[in-house]
Design a protein that fits this description.
6-stranded antiparallel beta sheet; elongated; mainly beta; Immunoglobulin-like; 4-stranded antiparallel beta sheet; about 160 residues
Length: about 160
């Protein structure tokens, strides 16, 4: 099950890549490799990445156009300057498509995180309900959870 969101595009060029590799965890925990990148084709932005997570694991994504942080929503040129959803890992890859019609030129930030709830039982058993078995330099603590985050920034052009 791969979620896709409707936004739209004219074209874009990469600004920075986002690879997060395995950390050097100290005790029997699980490390995770998570990368994120993009491709564009006409009015479509494809967010994609690779990982060593097992098939069926679910990652979340959050995409934000810089204009969404500068203007109140009532002044946005398009209603879809922020999108979020989930994607399921299959054969070490995940992806989603966003329709970016009416997006103005500007920076776009993509953030991908693991874990999110709910996860399949095998994934919960390996990494923990709230990521408690995760370890490594790419793991951050958010409240009672541990998460792996990969970020990517691109410059959107029309």
């Amino acid at each position: 099950m791969i979620a896709s969101w409707v936004l739209s595009i004219g074209g874009c060029t990469p600004a920075t890549g986002g690879d997060v590799g395995p950390g050097s965890g100290s005790s029997g925990g699980e490390t995770v490799v998570l990368s994120v990148d993009h491709r564009s084709r006409w009015r479509e932005l494809r967010i994609e990445g690779t990982t060593d997570l097992p098939d069926g694991a679910v990652v979340s994504y959050h995409v934000t156009h810089a204009l969404a942080e500068e203007l109140p929503p009532s002044e946005w040129p398009a209603q879809n300057l922020i999108a979020d959803g989930t994607a399921v890992v299959q054969e070490s890859q995940y992806w989603t498509r966003l329709n970016t019609t009416y997006w103005p030129a500007g920076a776009v930030r993509v953030q991908v995180q693991f874990p999110i709830a709910p996860q399949p039982a095998t994934v919960r058993g390996r990494y923990g309900e709230f990521g408690e078995h995760l370890t490594g330099d790419n793991v951050t603590i958010l409240g009672a959870s541990k998460v792996v985050t990969a970020e990517h920034t691109l410059e959107w052009t029309r």
